[in-house]
Amino acid sequence: MQTQTAVEVTGLVKRYGAKAAVDGLDLTIARGSITAVLGPNGAGKTTTIETCEGYRRPDAGTVRVLGLDPVADAARLRPRIGVMLQAGGVYAGARAVEMLRHTAKLYAEPLEVDPLVERLGLGSCGRTPYRRLSGGQQQRLGLAMAVVGRPELVFLDEPTAGLDPQARRATWELVRELHRDGVTVVVTTHHMDEAEQLADTVAIVDRGRVIARGTPAELCRSGAESTLRFDGPPGLDLDSLRGVLPDGASVTEPSPGTYRIEAPVDPGLLAAVTAWCAAAGVMPDGLAVQRRSLEDVFLDLTGRELR
Ligand SMILES: Nc1ncnc2c1ncn2[C@@H]1O[C@H](COP(=O)(O)OP(=O)(O)OP(=O)(O)O)[C@@H](O)[C@H]1O
């Protein structure tokens, strides 16, 4: 019987010298999901993914992928997963599409190569050596190689880094199609919009651990504040407005006539603001709730400092 879990990482530790790149990381990925793994540079995302792929051995903890041990059961696991590495992983002199055809032959029921080549815009690169492809073409070939074997599970490490908008969209479309076919997709990315558009689950990794996990909507709702904003006459009495709001609400006028209220936004807050406006004879133009974006959540959780 197949379990509903595609990837189960428990207490994963991976050290390089004295430094723990991954430091007790737990992550469960459901079959058929698209999971985006986000995190600052050096957070341990690639190390975790490469451990799941069997390229690195854990120092502690366990990793199970499709119920198998990625190192001990590598021979059984490899034909069932697709891997797109951050740095190519392709012999530099290999001709692009020949390489893809060769890869396809290693699998029992590969996708048809020509349509895949066309849809990823690689039609003109047939005999071009890998090292002569542009960065974006190398990325797209890497994606094609990861999916051509019709895997049950694909790991995509920053698949759209450096891609033009058209290629990004083609990549997203391919990922959605994989999802519709029941493939489990694990994708690392620094593009918050990509995670919001594609993923049903987001895991935020920081300092070698998962520090938050949920749907994009759950993460954006979680925790604190949202913002209420409106336009009105400049110079309203902010202290008076603050006086009718719950403790801890912040009221600012970032530019003349634009007002921001940071507080947990609920119907009571809206009623208090509109009642205050009515009493003051102020029309709150464009009154709107601004939810936190995934990027706001990410920065709140991982900090704004460069590391
Ligand atoms: N082979 C290695 N030898 C020594 N240190 C390493 C090695 N591989 C990774 N590291 C270190 O482990 C930490 C985690 O790296 P990792 O590549 O997993 O981060 P990441 O979250 O994928 O970052 P990025 O977003 O920049 O790709 C970093 O500090 C990195 O320098």
From TrEMBL:
The keyword Cell membrane applies. It comes from the Bacteria. The keyword Electron transport does not apply. Keywords: Antibiotic resistance, ATP-binding, Cell membrane, Membrane, Nucleotide-binding, Translocase, Transport. Its main location: membrane. It holds the Pfam family ABC_tran. Its EC number is 7.6.2.2. SUPFAM superfamilies: P-loop containing nucleoside triphosphate hydrolases (SSF52540). It is found in: Cell membrane. GO terms for molecular function: ABC-type xenobiotic transporter activity; ATP binding; ATP hydrolysis activity. It is a peripheral membrane protein. Residues 7-232 form the ABC transporter domain. InterPro entries: AAA+_ATPase (IPR003593), ABC_transporter-like_ATP-bd (IPR003439), ABC_transporter-like_CS (IPR017871), ABC_transporter_ATP-binding (IPR050763), P-loop_NTPase (IPR027417). GO terms for cellular component: plasma membrane. GO terms for biological process: response to antibiotic. Belongs to the ABC transporter superfamily. Drug exporter-1 (DrugE1) (TC 3.A.1.105) family. PANTHER family: ABC TRANSPORTER ATP-BINDING PROTEIN. This is ABC-type xenobiotic transporter. It comes from Kitasatospora camelliae.
